[in-house]
Amino acid sequence: MKKAIALILSLVMCVSLFTACGKQQGSTDDQETAKTLVVGTQNFDGKFSPFFYTNSYENDVMSMVFDALLLTDREGSVVLKGADGEVRPYNGTDYTYTGVANCDIVENADGTVDYNITMKQGIKFSDGEEMTIDDAIFSYYVLLDPTYDGVSTLYSIPIKGLEAYRTGMESRMNLILAAGPDGYTATDYFTEDQYNTFWAAFNAAGVKFAQEILDYVVAEGYAAATDSVAAQAGNWGFELAEDATVEDFWAAIVEARGYDITDEGINAETAGTSISALLEAEIGDSFSDYTIGVQTGESAPNVSGIVKTGDYSMTVTLTEVSATAIYQIPVVICPVHYYGEMDKYDYDNNKFGFDKGDLSHVKSVTSAPIGSGPFTFKSYANGAVTLEKNPGYWKGEPKIDTVIWREMLDVDKIPGVVSGTIDITDPSYSAKAAEQIKSANSNGEISGDVIQTDLVANLGYGYVGFNANRVKVGTGNGGDEASKNLRKAIATVIAVYRDVAVDSYYGEFANVINYPISDTSWAAPRVTDEGYKVAFSVDVNGNDIYTEGMSADDKYAAAKQAALGYFEAAGYTVADGKITAAPAGGRMDAEVMVGGSGKGDHPSFMALTLASDALKEIGFNLIVSDMSNFAEMTNAINAGTADMFAMAWQATPDPDMFQIYHSKGGSNEKSYWIKDADLDELIMMARQSTDQTYRKTLYKQCLDIVADWAVEIPIYQRQNCVIFSAKRVNLDTVTPDITTYWTWYNDIELLDLQ
Fold first, then answer.
1. Which of 338, 474, 690, 712 has the most Cβ atoms closer than 10 angstroms to its Cβ?
2. For strand 86-90 and strand 93-97, is the pairing parallel, antiparallel, or unpaired?
3. Residue 618: pLDDT above 50?
4. Is residue 455 domain-resident?
5. Same domain? 618 vs 474
6. Banded pLDDT at 633 (limits 50, 70, 90)
7. What residues are paired with 716 via a beta bridge?
8. Does 456 fall in a domain?
9. Are 327 and 392 in contact (CB under 8 A)?
10. 403-416 as b/e, with b when 16 or more CB fall inside 10 Å?
11. Distance CA 644, CA 624 (A)
């Protein structure tokens, strides 16, 4: 699955607690001998819990503190025999992957699928308590609770009995939100006092939410502090009356988003703090009363598809084959004796460590995690997370004593390694960053005597998207041939300028891609595959536009000529090498939004501006809008009012295409508006098989249909960068063959300093 990612992040700069050698200032002689690794990272939200973390940087920290049931290898495939120590080849080397459990998958005659999990015995949490299957079962039930509101999507796979368990219960807050603020009606689910208290807090929190947005707009220079609320809100994509107040702005947000307080609703507008966090702060200690589940109907006492088969074994049964399930099954194992309440755990009597619908205790230990990983959590203070080695780690005691994850701005990451204040970090990589690194090394390369650099392909990719319901001919859904030809005309011209744009922005550290899927995925078409095509490189008759050895100028001319053919096929009048009139229901222009901060700072910007000039030469006006406010662009996409947009997808290891391209997919319904029955069927067929070869064939057909709809122009696959201090880190102990799926901290217990 893939999700849209913003290219603008709010970062926190903090004061370093450590000297250049990584030792704490004022340390004793004994402390001087301790090995401390300092990692430069970006900002945390302070929720260090596998259940309730809110950003990827917290997840990175958690990877050192916890173990999951199963792990993935260097190619992103799940290791099924980790407890035995499974050997898999990569890049000419056999690697042994060791995890806490084995998993046997059995497809039954009735269509159900069993995931039989057997845990390694003798593994202990950092507090000395032994890990058993009860800890895994507890972790499953937290994630599957009807009131769970964390980041997991485990509930989306077809676990037997899950629907019966989750129905008949809803959180009190959701029930109050569903009732609305217009008047209390007597109910068994909440009191009138609870109702009135909630809505008063909701509106108070909402005004603070709206004010944060206005403050952000001013702080970023999009508006002046002296401007009216209407003018400031206008920079966030809202049109308000000139005399509007902050309260009016909040009312407009609610009108646009409803009473949906998820990331798909009101939280999509946040300039920092979520409405949920502000609401919690406003209500105070009694907030948990609103998050507790209320019984609204019949529900099962357990999930019948989760069965304990021994002290160290269990079976998870699915009602049908689900290709994505193997990536959902390996939950992070959290100790029930810490995150739950032992007097509330009795498997045989349907007690799973907490009262169903009440996760308040689980949430209460969010900031002080305990796991079975190589490091233990000590503190988060002054912009730094401190971890200490777990001497009882089941893989062996780590060589490093302390790891500090230090918040910092991206621009300070490379200088931090050069100066010696940090040892490992991940700066955004570009041609400019590469030159910075090269200048630090005496050999003038990206790896040398000061900095060692590891580059891996990013799991996501950059693209230019079309809303098929807007860039079309006529009144249909944009799936007719005329509308497809219109978009192909525009796409053909943009596509020819991709290489020069990507090379200019990234240099050698990114490449043009031809299919809307990350090149890191096993499902991505390869040049050697049958039917592989360069994106938008044929004319309306299916003939190749380009020939071997063709000059750049000749390619640009050929692209324009092919575009004219597509315009004509779409019903446009073409005369003397230009389109002179649009057909009924057609347009002579389209707007493409790009988040270049108003400065053209975006990998796709050059391709779009060059394409705009070329299209203008043949009579079509492509308007390139460089958005200084990224939120304004995402708001337009979500509202379905954007014609075209330059964005990036962040993918997951499994290339499931439902979210993006299926007619019922959430992102498709906001971005592309594809309505294609054949595509829907292929996506569902791929979901119902675990055969990768078969699925890749199906996905290639899916990608060809998407290309025919011409709703997505694949632009670039960039590289991620991890840099190490060559003076501080013992490079011989860095995990070899770092990949998108196997990072430097996957073998953190082996890493050592010089």
1. 712
2. antiparallel
3. yes
4. no
5. yes
6. confident
7. 462, 512
8. no
9. no
10. bbbbbbeeebbbeb
11. 9
pLDDT for the residue 378:
96
d(CA 739, CA 54): 24
d(CA 659, CA 3): 8
Q: Convert the pLDDT of each residue in 38-66 to its tens digit.
A: 999 988 888 899 999 878 889 999 999 99
Q: Is residue 45 part of a domain?
A: yes
The residue behind tokens 């370093």 is: 16
In this prediction the pTM is 0.80
- Structural domain including 533 reads 461-718
Quote the pLDDT of residue 354: 97
Euclidean distance between CA atoms 472 and 653, whole angstroms: 33
Calpha distance 19→34 (Å, rounded): 14
Residue identified by tokens 């993918």 is 651
Domain match, 442 and 465 both: no
pLDDT of residue 14: 30
Number of domains, the chain: 4
SS3 at position 609: helix
d(CA 383, CA 43): 8
Domain identity same for 220 and 73: no
Can you give the pLDDT at residue 45? 84
Q: What is the CATH number of the domain that holds 401?
A: 3.40.190.10
Q: Are residues 479 and 503 in the same domain?
A: yes
Q: Please report how the helices 481-496 and 552-569 are oriented relative to each other, as an axis angle in degrees rounded to 10.
A: 170
The Cα diameter of the chain in Å comes to 84
Q: Which tokens sit at 170?
A: 């809803």
Quick one: average pLDDT of 353-380? 94
Lowest mean pLDDT among 200-214, 256-270, 449-463, 570-584: 256-270
